[in-house]
Hints:
The structure is a single chain. By secondary structure, the protein is mainly alpha-helical. The chain has helices spanning 15-23, 29-36, 46-57, and strands spanning 6-8, 13-14. Helix content is 49%, strand content 8%. Strand 1 (6-8) and strand 2 form a beta hairpin.
Amino acid sequence: xxxxxxxxxxxxxxxRDIMDAVENGAKTLEEVQAATQAGTVCGACLxxxxxxxxxxxNK
Length: 59
């Protein structure tokens, strides 16, 4: 997994940003959105964002 890959183009949120949010206790989409603002503009990244959160939360 490329930690520098942009997940949310609108906010410039990377995989690493999402990983950091999950490592700091964000477990739901809403919590990750609050921490990173990812998925809060156009929503195009939501399916990929949700899949990444699920994958990270189940590690």
